[in-house]
């Protein structure tokens, strides 16, 4: 069995790549405490490859992942070939899911993909402090809630944001 220490980031590669790249830049910048082991570093899944070949590489990433971050942009909910499949796999594996709203919303909104809409997930706006907080804290909370049989969206309180200086 693989050692699960990676963060799997799911996003619209056509329109939201800059947000993914910004997260990797935060991790590389010594001025930030933000850090994560990126599942995308394991292999390269190219758009020109056959669908099953890409999914095989994505499954390898999942085998090493402990958490999924979904970057929710304007078109994310419309993507069914890979993005929807990635979310469905994460749910089957019981991975904690953090929905990161690229429009700044602190809760689940109309942009939320149907694949995770009713699932146990936390929703935060895109920003280094709150994403870092969610990545550090949501996995344990998710495990607790899952054990209790809870489902549905979860949000951090205004006090959490205030404590983070947001």
Topology:
Layout: E1 6-10, H1 17-28, H2 51-63, E2 65-72, H3 83-93, E3 97-101, E4 121-125, H4 128-147, E5 153-155, H5 158-163
Parallel strand pairs: 1-2, 2-3, 3-4, 4-5
Key descriptive features of the protein:
alpha/beta, 5-stranded parallel beta sheet, 5 helices, globular
Task: Give an overview in words.
This protein has 166 residues and is α/β, with parallel strands linked by helices. Helices cover 37% and strands 16% of the residues. The chain contains 5 helices and 5 strands, in the order E-H-H-E-H-E-E-H-E-H. It has helices at 17-28, 51-63, 83-93, 128-147, 158-163, and strands at residues 6-10, 65-72, 97-101, 121-125, 153-155. The chain has a 5-stranded parallel β-sheet with strand order 1-2-3-4-5, sandwiched between helices. It starts with 5 loop residues before the first strand and ends with a helix.
Summarize this entry quickly:
The protein is of the alpha/beta class and 166 residues long. It has helices at residues 17-28, 51-63, 83-93, 128-147, 158-163; strands spanning 6-10, 65-72, 97-101, 121-125, 153-155.
Low-confidence spans = none
Helix and strand run: EHHEHEEHEH
Category by helix and strand content: alpha/beta
Mean pLDDT: 86
Shape: globular
Which strand order do you get reading across the main beta sheet? 1-2-3-4-5
Total of helices: 5
Measured between the Cα atoms of the first and last residue, the distance is: 39 Å
Main pleated sheet: 5 strands, parallel
Helix content: 25-40%
**Spatial extent as radius of gyration:** 15 Å
Q: Quick one: how many beta strands?
A: 5
Portion in beta strands: 15-25%
